[in-house]
Write a structure and sequence with these properties.
Elements: H1 2-26, H2 35-43, E1 62-64, E2 70-71, E3 77-81, E4 84-88, E5 96-99, E6 111-112, E7 115-118, E8 123-131, E9 137-144, E10 147-156, E11 162-170, E12 180-187, E13 192-197
Parallel strand pairs: 1-10
Antiparallel strand pairs: 2-3, 3-4, 4-5, 6-8, 7-8, 8-11, 9-10, 9-12, 10-11, 12-13
Helix pairs in contact: 1-2
């Protein structure tokens, strides 16, 4: 009989321990334990624990399908094929083309090309190829006589070893001699993927 009483007492304690978090969790706000304490009871972690830092991921080029058109805010359109870069602008709707297979570009050596096209209204579209660098291209900075621009990148899937950068800007009326000084493509680690110096 003493053994039965001891067993019943142990069972009652176990039931009480199991029921406590459930009862605390279901207590309405404003009654019983504060919400912060409820959270600590249910999760097992203090409610005021600092959030873990979120790791930042370096940007990479937008991956496009062959022939998929990408429209730049100024109205220019770009599309890529295995042969190279194609584009049109608002002032020149005839497709233009820059080959990556005609032998004029060594995809095994880091490089950047540039095309600059302006309108009579002072809008300039800048674009070009980047190629041959190690790692993954991440950002493009274009330093011009009118200031520094940050370009976007597009590539075909499958790591072709080249891609296209593009950016546009409106020039101040006083800027009559716009020019590109240099272009730097950086990889996801912050190193130089390729560059072009024109000044």
């Amino acid at each position: 009989m003493a053994g039965m009483k001891k067993y019943a007492a142990v069972a009652a304690v176990a039931v009480a321990l199991i029921a406590v978090p459930t009862a605390a969790h279901s207590a309405p706000q404003g009654k019983g334990a504060p919400a912060a304490v409820l959270s600590a009871h249910v999760t097992g972690h203090p409610a005021h624990a600092p959030a873990l830092p979120v790791a930042k991921t370096a940007p990479t080029a937008r991956i496009v399908a062959p022939g998929e058109h990408v429209t730049e805010p100024g109205g220019a359109e770009f599309w890529l094929t295995a042969e190279g870069k194609h584009w049109t602008t608002l002032d020149n709707t005839d497709p233009q083309f820059r080959s990556v297979v005609d032998g004029n570009i060594d995809l095994g050596t880091p490089g950047v090309s540039a095309q600059v096209e302006g309108t009579a209204q002072g809008h300039v579209t800048l674009s070009g190829l980047y190629y041959g660098g190690k790692g993954t291209a991440s950002t493009v900075t274009v330093r011009t006589t009118a200031g520094t621009l940050h370009a976007k990148l597009v590539e075909l899937a499958g790591n072709p070893g080249w891609g296209v950068w593009y950016v546009s800007t409106d020039l101040p009326a006083s800027d009559k001699d716009f020019g590109v000084k240099h272009i730097v493509v950086r990889d996801t680690e912050g190193g130089v993927y390729s560059r072009l110096d024109l000044s």
